[in-house]
């Protein structure tokens, strides 16, 4: 279920998996903008942030704050839900990967048709690589825990 991002209604939406997308419309320069996923970046601490554009200006937001506002919950609850995928069962990571892979296929098709989608393709591939690294680190950690328990 997609919900408008407060202050960016009709421009950006966020879903229950904290995936942000730009909605079909017209850019500030008059170009047609198609719906596409906006890739977030990661801070040194591992939390995610995202840049949104409106009326020619760019503003950066912490992803959990946008999620909390859209789904009417506390920031702490949003943090717990968003980063559970990195600490819990990994379901959130798989949902995000699936959405990104779908977008990547669309961009690659558009690129083959002559549209310039280099930036979008590059950003999605980088993000997928980061997710892969996160999942590998989690797997290594989970393999080490039983070994540590035995050593105690």
- Could you estimate the helical fraction of the residues in percent? 40-55%
Report mean pLDDT, rounded to a whole number: 82
Number of strands: 9
Q: How does the major sheet shape up?
A: 4 strands, antiparallel
Radius of gyration (Å): 17 Å
Give short descriptive properties of this protein:
single chain, 152 residues, alpha+beta, four-stranded antiparallel sheet, three-stranded antiparallel sheet, 4 helices, 9 strands
Report what the structure shows:
This protein has 152 residues and is of the alpha+beta class. The protein has 4 helices and 9 strands; from the N terminus they run βββββββββαααα. Helices cover 51% and strands 20% of the residues. The protein starts with a strand and ends with a helix.
Helices and strands in order, then pairings?
Elements: E1 3-4, E2 12-14, E3 20-22, E4 25-26, E5 32-33, E6 36-38, E7 41-42, E8 48-54, E9 57-62, H1 63-70, H2 75-87, H3 91-112, H4 118-151
Antiparallel strand pairs: 1-2, 2-3, 3-6, 4-5, 7-8, 8-9
Helix pairs in contact: 1-2, 2-3, 3-4
What would a concise description of this structure say?
This protein is of the alpha+beta class. It has 4 helices and 9 strands.
